[in-house]
Amino acid sequence: MTIADIERQIPETVVGAVRGTVIFSALVGIAVGIACLVWPAATVNVLAILLGIALVVAGLYRIYQSFAATFLSGGLRFALGIIGLMILWAGIVVLWHPSNSGWGEADRIWFLAVFIGIGWIFQGVAELFSATTGSRHSSVWMAVLSGIVSIAAGIIMLAWPALALSTFVWVAGILLIVVSVVSLFTLPKKV
What we know:
- The chain crosses the membrane at residues 21-40, 46-64, 76-97, 109-129, 141-162, 168-187.
- The protein is mainly α.
- It has helices spanning 3-9, 12-38, 40-68, 74-95, 98-101, 105-132, 140-159, 161-184.
- The chain has one domain (18-183).
- Helix 3 crosses helix 8 (161-184).
- The two termini are 17 Å apart.
């Protein structure tokens, strides 16, 4: 049995549904990509809000973990709880409405950039560490290259937060439009 034989067995309604889904997601991707290019500051603000939500959820999860992980020592559970509270606090600070907190859009952008930059630096350090452990999951030079690039990106994000984030949004917007248009060329053919 060939792939063509299998394709002929797929009902026309399924092919139509897949085509409709691909077209819809491509149109949404194009619209979001254009929004990123037209309103980069608003896009960064939305990213900050999404980061805040993610931090609140991650903080609550860590707090839950500190109570649920009974197999850990009391000290580790306490540390998990404190880390969870710090992450939860950071999420609340990011989400706090600027008119109530005195934080403006520039402050949110800076906070977002700091979290992304620190995260990339930690990821880079972890990659460099994994390169020295003799892991066979990837080549040593690729792990070192990935680590160096991640650390450099983190430092750039911390040094020039507004420029780095606006560049990130522009590149993401352009790539989102390109990927969405290209996906339209992969629509399944009607049989």
